[in-house]
Design a protein that fits this description.
mainly beta, Immunoglobulin-like, 11% helix, five-stranded antiparallel beta sheet, four-stranded antiparallel beta sheet, 2 domains
Length: 175
């Protein structure tokens, strides 16, 4: 019986690790797309679902250097972010732009976090190309609630834990 518990704990740990490795943001290259010219472009930002946690954009802003080129409110729905690319110093468009997206993430338990991520694109003479592995950061707002209540894996509050339980959003195990 003890061997089965150890095997189950290892499987649970591997599953938790696998979900952390495959985390995606709205800034990943398979989530958004850009169309348009070097002077005027659109960035489409979706709402996710199905097998991914629900992610809904709130706000999008694009910069060329330190100049804001466009900003849009998305109101937690899919949105098209319009950008007018003009460098006031040179009178020419920027060839590299950075877009930042603020969005909500709702997990399977119903917890909602507000996250931010950014991605850079370059103009290659024909189209906007994503600079790969250029996410400049994800800032997660964490819930600092510590009430020491314990819950079983079904979400029911328990008073005397036995086996695997959750306390302060952390999975714990007691024999």
């Amino acid at each position: 019986m003890e061997l089965i518990k150890k095997i189950n704990m290892r499987i649970l740990f591997m599953l938790l690790l696998a979900t952390q490795i495959q985390a995606q943001t709205l800034c990943d290259s398979n989530m958004t797309y850009t169309t348009g010219s070097q002077y005027q472009l659109e960035i489409a930002i979706p709402v996710t679902g199905n097998s991914l946690p629900t992610m809904a954009p709130l706000y999008a802003v694009t910069y060329g250097g330190q100049t804001m080129l466009g900003q849009d409110s998305c109101f937690s729905g899919p949105c098209t972010h319009l950008v007018y690319n003009y460098n006031p110093t040179t009178g020419m468009p920027y060839d590299t732009i950075t877009t930042c997206v603020s969005y909500t993430l709702t997990d399977a338990s119903g917890y909602v976090d507000t996250l931010n991520c950014c991605f850079a694109q370059i103009w290659d003479g024909q189209a906007w190309m994503r600079l790969m592995s250029m996410t400049v950061g994800i800032n997660e707002i964490t819930n600092k609630l510590v009430n020491n209540k314990m819950y079983d894996l079904y979400g029911r509050e328990i008073f005397k834990p036995k086996g695997i339980y959750i306390q302060n959003r952390k999975v714990k195990y007691v024999k």
